[in-house]
Structure formats: structure tokens, C-alpha cells
Amino acid sequence: MSKHDLSELATGERVISERVPGVRSVALGFWIAAGSRDEPESRAGVSHFIEHLLFKGSSRYTAQEIAEIFDELGGELNAATSRETTVVYARVPDEKLETALDVMADMVYRPRFEDVDSEREVVLEEIAMVEDTPHDLVHDIASQAVFGGHPLGRPVIGRAEVISSVTRRALASYHHRAYSGQRLVLAAAGNVRHERLVELVEARRNGSVAADGLTRRAVKRLPRPGLRFQRKDTEQYHVCLGAPGISRLDDRRFAASLLDAIVGGSASSRLFQEIREKRGMAYSVYSYSSQYADAGQIGLYVGTREENLAACLEIAVAELADLAAGNVRAEELARAKENLKGRLLLSLESTSNRMTRLGRALVTDTPLLTIEEVVRRLEHVTAAEVAELADDLLAVGKLSAAGIGPDASRFREAVERVSPSLLEAAA
Q1: What is the helix, strand, coil percentage profile of the chain, to 5?
Q2: I need a surface site. Which of 87, 250, 356, 383 has the fewest CB within 10 A?
Q3: 337 shares its domain with 257
Q4: What are the residue numbers of the active site?
Q5: Phi, then psi, of 105 in degrees rounded to 5
Q6: pTM for the whole thing?
Q7: Per-residue confidence (pLDDT) for residue 209, from 0 to 100
């Protein structure tokens, strides 16, 4: 059974750690409870932009010094932005903990916001790269189809028009509001003593609590299922069928994980077997799900040539309908449970995964269940519960569709064969 320690500093930051015997590394993560859904429309993309700028220098370290220090440590330093969180994370040898934390804390608390214009160009190149990567871009289009004008429907990476014009002052102001004490969590796992970790953070924090000026727009009413298409001269059509999912606090999340595994989350899943293995209609086909504070998204992706497009969607919708009708086979449910349990247990061999589990749970106010409790909850999910969830979330009338490819009419024809009502609503 894993055991963690938790402390709260006077300025609101929380520190959580897990000591892992027998390792000589420490994984660290500064988690910030701010992501793309917390941005106003006029600042879409600033969370991701700020994540980039943290590496461009802090009050005590230049961008080059940050890179050189972590190279000398033999460590890894990176960051990521999602719709609800930002994280700066590292993994270093245990004797290098103090040096790594010193640099990371200065980056997070006191970025210089220098070289804004040069990094602006880097982010614009990243946006252009996504635009040129249809199997990634289609997921952003699918989110827009499901969530409409809500911030959850916007791309995390931001929009070129915002990134091109946002000022250094606006970035610094947003950082001041988003990176406040109560929104910050430091998570660690590995060969680390909790008391020492708290001492190190306390010596490096800002010393004051910033006013929390971010307003997160709640998901109150979602639009009707949407249809989105972007024309590109691609060899394949890249398509997502998606629908609103459940929040991360919903007790059905364990059933949702099993549903995802059965639909398209593994090599033995229905979509992978029926579309790729048996018919050879796609190289990449899978299901996916995201859970947020008050909402979620569930869906599937397939990349296929024009002649297979309609058939792929028909097979996918037929499999979803079969599950929703109650045809969850005992052997596939048992296999999905063993798959998730095995992946969970294997993940515990990584200090980085352990750190992520702690940090993400705490920063998102999600109950931090023991591994034993997670396994127990998975084991207790019934076939009827999986089928009920499939019917509730993935009924054809609730599915949005998003696509990228050379011909909008071909895409619409394929969608019409599985969901005529979606075409009628979009007309």
C-alpha cells in the first residue's frame, strides 16, 4: 500500500510526497490549477504560452543556465498544459534534489518574461505544426463540435491571433493571478524526505498570497451535437465521433474506464479488432475519454481512406449500439479489468507516474484513492453498469462528428449513413 505525506504552507501551497524505497531518483512536479478553460476568449492560449516562457529565464537563472544545469544533473525537465492544469516537472538523481527544486521554484514563482517575441514565434510554429498534423488537429475540432463556444471547446495550444498580439504585461498579470499559492501544488515521489521537501519549498516560495482573479466558466448547458469539417489535401480522412462524458468526481468513472478499454483502448478492443485486424480498414483506430471538474468528453478516432470511411463509421456505431443494448461479454469485461489493473500496477514502478498521480489528484481536488481501493472499485463494476453507461453517453443521437479530409461532401455522406439527424441539425 502506497503512503503519502501532505502539508500546507502558510501561503496556501500544498506539498505532497511519497517515499519509494529502493530508488535513487526523485520525480518533482509543480502543479498549477489553471489551464485553457480558465482563460477569457481574448486570452486564449496564454496558459500554454506562459508554460513556454517559464523556461526562458527566471530572477536568478537565464534560459541557457536552466538548460545547462539540468543537463549537468543528468535529469529531465519539461512542462505541459491541459484544459484545467499546468505542470512543470522533472526527474533527477536524489542527491540533486535541492539544486533541481531551486531552479524549478524560481522558474515557477519568478519568471522574467524575457524573450517574449522570440518565444512567441516558437509557439506560432507549434500552432502551425498542429495545423499540419490532422490526426492531432481533429481532436481540437471534435472538442469544438461537442462543447461549442464553451472554453472546453477551444484548443489548449491557443490561437495564432491571440499569441501574435498578447503583451508581456498581460502575460505577467495572468501569471500573477494563476500561479498564486492556493493554486499551487508541489508533488514528489522517490527517495525523498517529506520534511526536507517542505523546508526547501518554504525557503523558495514568494511569501505572499496573490489574489485569485481567475473565473472558471461552469458547464451548465451543452449545445446540441455538432458537425465540423476542415478541408485539407490529405491521403486519409481523419474522423472523431464524440459526446459529452462524465466528470472526474462521478462514481461511474470506473465503469467509464472499462467502457473505454472495451471500445477502443487496447489491441483486443472492439474497434481495433473489427476495423483494423479483421478488415484492414485503418492503421490507427482507438477510443478516448477526458474527465474535467464538471464535465467530460468521450469519443473515438479513426484515420482511413475515402473508400473505407463510411464502412468504418458504420462498424463503430454498430459496436457502440451493441454495447448500449446490453451485450457486454463476460470475457471482454474480465479482460478489460485485468488490463487496467495491470497497467495501474506497472505504472507504480515509475517515480514520475507516482508523482503525477499525487499531483494531479491534489490540484484537481480529486479523491486520492489507494491502489487497493481503485482495484476494488474496478472489480465491482458489472456488465450492466458498462452497458448502461454506453447507452447514456454513446447513443447515436448524442454523437458529434468532426473530420479532416479532402472532400466535405464525402464526409457528410458517411456521417449521414450513421446519423441522419446530425446532418439535419447542421443544415
Answers
A1: 50, 20, 30
A2: 250
A3: yes
A4: 51
A5: -65, -40
A6: 0.94
A7: 58
**pLDDT tens by residue, 39-81:** 999 999 999 999 999 999 999 999 999 999 999 999 999 999 9
Within 8 A by CB and 6+ apart from 311, the residues are: 279, 281
Q: Could you give the 3-state DSSP secondary structure of residue 64?
A: helix
Are 180 and 125 contained in the same domain?
A: yes
16 sits in which H/E element: strand 14-19
**Residues 164-187: tens digit of each pLDDT:** 999 999 999 999 999 988 899 999
Neighbours of 215 (CB within 10 A): 9
Domain count, the chain: 2
Strand partners, 303: 238, 284
| 301 found inside a domain | yes
Residue pair 30/87 in contact by the 8 Å Cβ criterion: yes
Orientation angle between helical segments 253-264 and 371-379, nearest 10 degrees: 70
What is the rounded end-to-end Cα distance, in angstroms, of the chain? 55
Return d(Cα 284, Cα 308) in angstroms, integer. 13
Amino acid making up residue 200? L
208-263 pLDDT, tens digit per residue, is 555 566 888 999 888 999 999 999 999 999 999 999 999 999 999 999 999 999 99
